[in-house]
User: Which sequence fits this backbone?
C-alpha cells in the first residue's frame, strides 16, 4: 500500500464530486495541479446528498463500487480553500485507489445518509455522470 503526500509542502487529494473538472466547484481547487484520473477500489458507495447538492461517499464491507475521480496536488493555501468551501458534515478521510495508493478524500457519514434516506447513485458511473443525467 502506497501512502501519499510525497512532498511535505503539497497534499495529494482525490476529488470525486462537485470540484471535478467541468463541475461548478472546480474553481475551489484554485488551479491545483491535476495529476491523473483515478478510481477507488470497489469498496465505497456514492449518494446524492442534500437533494443532489453534493456527493456523499463512505466505505462499505461488501457491495461497494469503484468511484471515478481525479487526483490533485494542493498547496497549503489551495487545501485550506478547498476545506473552507466544503459543505457541512463532510470530513477528510482516506480512500484506497485502484493502484493501492491511500489518499485523502472527502467522506460523508453513512449514518446521516441513511437517516435522510438520500438516494444511492452508485450505479450512475460517478458524480459527473449523475449530474449530467439529472
Assistant:
Amino acid at each position: 500500500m502506497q501512502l501519499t503526500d510525497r512532498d511535505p509542502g503539497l497534499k495529494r487529494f482525490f476529488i470525486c464530486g462537485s470540484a471535478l473538472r467541468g463541475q461548478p466547484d472546480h474553481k475551489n481547487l484554485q488551479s491545483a495541479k491535476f495529476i491523473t484520473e483515478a478510481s477507488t477500489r470497489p469498496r465505497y458507495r456514492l449518494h446524492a446528498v442534500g437533494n443532489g447538492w453534493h456527493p456523499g461517499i463512505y466505505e462499505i464491507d461488501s457491495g461497494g463500487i469503484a468511484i471515478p475521480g481525479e487526483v490533485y496536488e494542493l498547496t497549503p493555501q489551495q487545501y485550506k480553500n478547498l476545506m473552507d468551501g466544503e459543505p457541512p458534515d463532510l470530513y477528510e478521510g482516506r480512500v484506497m485507489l485502484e493502484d493501492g495508493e491511500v489518499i485523502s478524500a472527502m467522506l460523508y457519514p453513512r449514518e446521516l445518509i441513511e437517516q435522510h434516506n438520500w438516494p444511492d447513485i452508485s450505479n450512475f458511473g460517478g458524480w459527473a455522470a449523475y449530474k449530467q443525467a439529472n
User: Anything to note?
Assistant: The chain has three helices and eight strands. Helices lie at 76-84, 110-116, 127-133. The chain has one domain: 2-133. The mean pLDDT is 92.
